[in-house]
Each structure stands twice: as C-alpha cells, then as structure tokens.
Write a structure and sequence with these properties.
It catalyses: DNA(n) + a 2'-deoxyribonucleoside 5'-triphosphate = DNA(n+1) + diphosphate. By secondary structure, the chain is an alpha/beta fold. The chain has helices at about 10-15, 30-45, 60-70, 90-100, 120, 125-130, 145-155, 165-175, 180-190, 200-205, 215-225, 225-240, 245-265, 270-275, 285-290, 295-315, 320-330, 340-345; strands at about 1-5, 20-25, 45-55, 75-85, 110-115, 135-140, 160, 195. It has 3 domains: about 1-140, Rossmann fold; about 145-205, Helicase, Ruva Protein, domain 3 (Orthogonal Bundle); about 215-345, Zinc Finger, Delta Prime, domain 3 (Up-down Bundle), CATH 1.20.272. The chain is globular, with a radius of gyration of 25 Å.
C-alpha cells in the first residue's frame, strides 16, 4: 500500500490510476476534494460511470457485485465509491469487502472512504488484498505545528507565492477550517491573478472564519498559552458551541490529569498512560500539564466546573462563558490570588 498526503495526490494520479484508493481522515473538505480529484482524472481515462454507496445493513451488495463484474467490452469503465461505517465492522461486512476485493479489474476503480481505520481493519484479509495495488490518502486535518508546512505545499500546488508572515496569518485565522482557507485562496487568485500574496494583500481579504474544536482550547489551556486559549474560547463562544458537551470534555481532561498527578509519584508515567487509555499523541501535552499544574490549581479548576454544572442543571440557558474565561486565566497564569478565585467560586 502506498501512503500519501493530499498535497501529493495529483502527482500520483498523473503517474498511474490504481485499482483502489482508500480516502481516510476526519476532514470533510479533504475527503471530498480527494474523491473529486480521483474521479476527475479517472474520467479522462475512460471511467465515465460513477456509483456511490453508503454501507449499512440495507446495502444491496448483489448490485455492487454485478457492477464489479461488468467489463468495458459491453459497458463503460466504472468508479464505485463505498462510504465505510464508523463502527460495526461485522464479520459479514469483512467477508463482503473481501469478495469485492477479488473482483477488482482494470475497468473498475474502487474508492473506499472512512474517517479512520483501526489496526485490526488494516490487518484484515480484505485490506491486505487491496493493498497490492492500492493508495492510502491521509485526509486528517493538519495539526497546528504541521499547518504552516501544509499551507506552503498547498500554495505551491496552486502556483501561489506566500511570504512567512502571510503563512502565519493564515494559520492563525484558518486553523481547522480548510474549506474556508481554500475559498480565501480562490478569492485571492481572482483579485491578484499574479499569485503573489503579500501580507498586505492577504490582510485585505482575510476574515476570521476559523473553526475550532474544544480540544484546540483544552490543549492551549494545558500548555499554559493564555493568548491562544482566550482566542479559541472566544471563537467557540461566537459559534455558540454546545454548553454541556464543552463542559464534559474539559471536566474529563482535568479529572484525568488530577488522577495521574496523584498516581505518578514514584511510578512510571508511561504505564499510567496505558492504564488510563491516554492516546499516544496526547501524552506530551498531558505530561506537560501534570508537571506544570499544581494539585491545588487543578482542584480549583474542577470546583469552577462543578459550579458551572450545578448552574446549568438549574437553568439550561445559564451563560457559562464568563466562568470558562476565569478557568482559562486560572490554568494559564503562573500566580493567581485566592481572593480572585474566591470571588468566582464562592
């Protein structure tokens, strides 16, 4: 299986059309764009019929198999797109996919789309079968530290010139919102067809369309980045993010960190991470928070969240944002007075 990122997709498509493409990731824009690119190039090479199925218990597999057995001598070359379920990879589904993998031929192009694949699925027989002539396209939303490089590669593909300051500005405004970033690129190309996007040009058209998730805010809190966490919280506030969901996520994270802080005295932190099912990519952030945040500060933060939860139960329309702002200051500040905390938690 060839593994590539979306910025390299054009290169591989122009080289050769493979029998199967796995389009995997959590970014809806990258998923759809990748599928459209594959279909566009394939159409030029004679794959003119396109069928899409969202797999569930009612999927007509006989029809899919019938399409798969049709050769270009009697019909047009075909593209079959299967949207894999987020859960429920039953034995029946595995067997269906295995049977389909055995039917692949030169007049059939298979595209499998999913938010993620587990190790178990990657070790399955059907996956290994399609891996022989397959391409895995990573459609995960770039992390903050990866975003500048991603923008730079994207700009190069679109024949756009960006200076370092412009890249940083775009990172700040469009982290997590690749659709809006792509729209800005298109608008800039219309306004400045020479493709030279200086900082002054970018600033004229950029709007604050950043689309953050709660974990962006939490990560900045745990790292003690007050400026960044405050900005993200204000964006969540503008989007009127679901109160209860936001509250439960931060509660869970802080309780986990407090628990690990108690348990970590004289113990191997890696073992504790394994015992508490902490994701590998989150371990550096959690480790930093364990070292940086005192037990006293964590307890105060949980106390604030408990106050918010009680108020929400009394009044679902209760406005949580002021106390979440206080929480941000508490977790990011090196020193904070007891009187300041008492004013908001009493």
């Amino acid at each position: 299986m060839i593994h590539i990122c979306t910025t390299n997709l054009n290169l591989y498509l122009n080289d050769k059309i493979r029998s199967c493409y796995l389009v995997i990731g959590d970014d809806a824009f990258l998923l759809q764009e990748s599928i459209d690119k594959i279909c566009e190039i394939a159409h030029k090479k004679g794959f003119t019929e396109r069928y899409t199925y969202s797999l569930d218990t009612n999927t007509d597999w006989n029809n899919i198999y019938h399409l798969s057995k049709s050769y270009s001598l009697f019909s047009r070359r075909q593209i079959i797109i299967l949207i894999l379920p987020e859960s429920g990879y039953t034995t029946i589904l595995k067997n269906k996919l295995l049977k389909l993998s055995k039917l692949l031929h030169s007049d059939l192009l298979l595209i499998l789309c999913a938010k993620k694949l587990t190790k178990e699925q990657e070790n399955s027989i059907w996956y290994k079968k399609i891996s022989k002539d397959g391409v895995y396209i990573n459609c995960q939303t770039p992390e903050l530290h990866q975003f500048p490089k991603w923008i730079s590669k994207r700009a190069k593909v679109m024949s756009i010139t960006l200076d370092e300051q412009s890249i940083q500005l775009l990172c700040y405004y469009y982290e997590g919102n690749l659709l809006a970033l792509n729209q800005i690129f298109k608008l800039l190309l219309i306004l400045y067809p020479d493709g030279n996007f200086t900082l002054s040009r970018v600033q004229k058209v950029v709007n604050d369309n950043v689309h953050f998730k709660p974990y962006h805010w939490i990560d900045m809190l745990l790292q003690g980045n007050i400026k960044r966490s405050w900005h993200i919280l204000q964006q969540l506030k503008k989007e009127n993010y679901e109160n209860v969901f936001l509250l439960h996520i931060i509660q869970r994270e802080l309780i986990l960190i407090l628990t690990l802080k108690y348990q970590s005295k004289g113990k191997d932190l890696i073992k504790l991470f394994n015992q508490n099912n902490v994701w590998q990519y989150r371990r550096p952030i959690i480790s930093t928070a364990i070292k940086r945040l005192s037990i006293y500060k964590l307890q105060l933060a949980i106390q604030i969240l408990n106050k918010v939860e009680v108020n929400l139960k009394k009044d679902y329309c209760y406005i949580i944002w002021p106390l979440l702002e206080i929480l941000s200051i508490l977790l990011c500040s090196e020193t904070i007075t007891k009187s300041f905390i008492n004013e908001f938690t009493s």
